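Example record

One chain of 142 residues, shown exactly as stored in the release files.
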Amino acid sequence: MRLDFHFNVDHRLQYACRVVRKARAANKTVLVVARDGDRLARFDAALWTFSPLDFVPHVTADSPLAAETPVLLSREAPVTHARDVLLLLDDTAPEGFKELFERFERVIEVVSRDDEDRAQARVRFKLYRDSGLQPQVHEAAE
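Predicted structure tokens for this chain:
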């Protein structure tokens, strides 16, 4: 499992859309988790509008089409449909993160330039590292 933090992005949800598009271009399936329902709804809308030339097929994890759709959106991580990539859009680490992360090839966190977002990400980064994981840092070039 690979754990990546993408720091210093201008627009967290727009950048996350590009992460999903890139994963789909590599034929990877993605689970996007945001416990904040409003944030998840804004990300859903952003997937429809971030690029006029790209279509990213996605549904909520409870949709009847979830098993056939490559990108799932959920307010909680434990879903029954296996995915390659976990994209976290939360401000805190998920409960049982170490066991959860092992179910994915790759886990990605997106962090904006906002001071509060960066402070929360530092807490998650330290928590992950202190638990024995080795998060990788990527500075966004937007």
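Notes: The chain has one domain: 2-139.
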